[in-house]
Design goal:
- The protein is of the alpha+beta class.
- Helix 7 runs antiparallel to helix 9, helix 10 runs antiparallel to helix 11 and helix 10 packs across helix 13.
- The strands form four sheets. It has a five-stranded antiparallel beta sheet with strand order 1-2-3-7-6, sandwiched between helices. Strands 8-10-11 form a three-stranded antiparallel beta sheet.
- A hairpin with a 4-residue loop joins strand 10 and strand 11.
- It contains 16 helices and twelve strands.
- The chain has two domains: 104 residues, 2-Layer Sandwich (Phosphorylase Kinase, domain 1), CATH 3.30.200.20; 279 residues, Aminoglycoside phosphotransferase (APH), C-terminal lobe (Aminoglycoside 3'-phosphotransferase, Chain: A, domain 2), CATH 3.90.1200.
- The protein binds adenosine-5'-triphosphate (ATP) and magnesium ion (MG).
- The site of magnesium ion (MG) has 5 residues, from loops.
- The site of adenosine-5'-triphosphate has 21 residues, from loops.
């Protein structure tokens, strides 16, 4: 019998691959013509194909295959097993918070492929933000998703031995190491990977490079990232990991998942909304339209935190292990620390997206460098204030006041 080996799929081979997969019969009629769309350029890391019926695009499947390196940065190796982590985490997220992730149809452990629901009526949220689209359900969906997926994988719910097994199951050391460097070490001090809009941002970058307190605070955040195995975090929870429309929100791409601080996911999303807020500088030339869209973004920041906090507290009271964790005092301290840390992680996310190597389309797509720098400057100012003042900030409203 011919041994099946791992081989990267191509737009030519993926059709046969899908036809031979166990899910083909559930989606397609036998022998119907299939069309391939290569979506790999929509991300940086993996191969991604949409395969749909040539006569009806509603019959489709999304094929995501890990490569042994990151597609856009082929120099460093990346473990193929991240596809299995993505599969398992999508299933757990569906279990704890149904309806907010793509359905996974199957995982192929030889080819390191996930076959999943093709969300072809959804838009990537980064694009949505740059078009000024309001998503009325996004804030609540995000707060609820964070509360449920993080609470149910934490020590507050899981028996201690079960949680420890989960920690070892989701170690993900190589992808964690990427984050440890890209988020926390590189952006705020001179590093060959760093790049920024120059010369416009030179003064602010120089201020950051000379601020030893700021650099030390980044290490405070890094150390917590590495040691606080609090819950199964998504690990790459930004607006580019959201596909949505006005009725439906889905969170994709948990390949960076591991046991880390809850605040990392919460803060990453808040930081990305601040990036979307800052980028409106270029996308909305009309001051009144810009102000009104920015108001919606900040209301959404507030709604994410307040929904998260309310639901997390409720889950704790209803489903938490009462013998182990019943204390109103401790619950308040837990959420206080989480909030403070979320502001720190939001800042780290902004630094890596403006000075570090992980640039984002929100800013990259602003062609005029003066305009881009002025938008990035808005985000960098907020990041510095949130990181350095976070211990004094007592509520999300106060954090937002610091922006205005
Ligand atoms: N289930 C899906 N349905 C429809 N489109 C999808 C789906 N999953 C991914 N895509 C498309 O592919 C793009 C990249 O997806 P994803 O973020 O999972 O890839 P990636 O290789 O992990 O990239 P990165 O980690 O750099 O974001 C998405 O923005 C979206 O356009
Ligand atoms: Mg990814």
């Amino acid at each position: 019998m011919k041994e099946i080996m791992y081989t990267p799929l191509t737009a030519k081979t993926v059709v046969d691959y899908v036809r031979q997969s166990p899910v083909a019969g559930q989606i397609f009629n036998s022998d119907e013509a299939l069309t391939v769309v290569d979506l790999s350029d929509g991300g940086n890391v993996n191969l991604i194909f949409r395969v749909h019926s040539s006569s009806n695009t509603d019959r489709s499947v999304l094929v995501k295959q890990a490569l042994p390196y990151a597609r856009r940065y082929p120099d460093g190796s990346m473990p193929l097993e991240r596809a299995k982590i993505e599969h398992d985490v999508l299933q757990l997220e569906e279990k704890y918070c149904p309806g907010l992730t793509p359905k996974v149809y199957g995982y192929d452990g030889v080819m390191h492929v996930n076959l999943m629901e093709d969300l072809n009526k959804h838009l990537n949220m980064r694009i949505g933000l740059s078009r000024g689209i309001i998503y009325p359900k996004f804030g609540q969906d995000t707060g609820r998703f964070l509360a449920r997926t993080l609470f149910y994988t934490s020590d507050l719910f899981l028996p201690s031995h079960e949680k420890k097994q989960m920690v070892t199951r989701f170690m993900n050391p190589v992808l964690c190491k990427v984050t440890e460097h890209l988020f926390f070490n590189e952006p705020c001090k001179p590093h060959p990977n760093n790049r920024w809009t120059t010369p416009q941002l030179d003064p602010v970058v120089s201020t950051i490079y000379n601020n030893l307190t700021l650099q030390g605070e980044m290490l405070v955040m890094k150390e917590k990232f590495m040691t606080k195995a609090q819950a199964l975090v998504h690990g790459d929870f930004h607006t580019g990991s959201v596909l949505l429309n006005s009725e439906d929100t889905r969170f994709i791409d948990p390949e960076f998942a591991f046991y880390g601080p809850i605040a990392f996911d919460v803060g990453s999303m808040l930081g990305n909304l601040i990036i979307g807020y800052a980028a409106q500088e270029a996308y909305q030339p009309d001051a009144a339209v810009r102000a009104s869209y920015r108001t919606w973004i900040l209301e959404t920041v507030s709604e994410i935190w307040s929904t998260f906090e309310r639901e997390f507290r409720q889950l704790w009271l209803e489903d938490g292990d009462k013998e182990e964790w019943s204390s109103a005092y401790f619950m308040d301290r837990y959420l206080d620390e989480l909030f403070t840390d979320a502001l720190g992680y939001a800042a780290a996310e902004i630094f890596r997206r403006t000075i570090g190597m992980a640039w984002v389309d929100d800013f990259v797509n602003i062609e005029d460098p003066d305009m881009r720098a002025s938008a990035e400057r808005v985000a960098l100012d907020i990041a510095q204030v949130w990181l350095l003042k976070r211990r004094e900030v007592k509520s999300i409203e106060q954090a937002i006041q610091l922006i205005k």
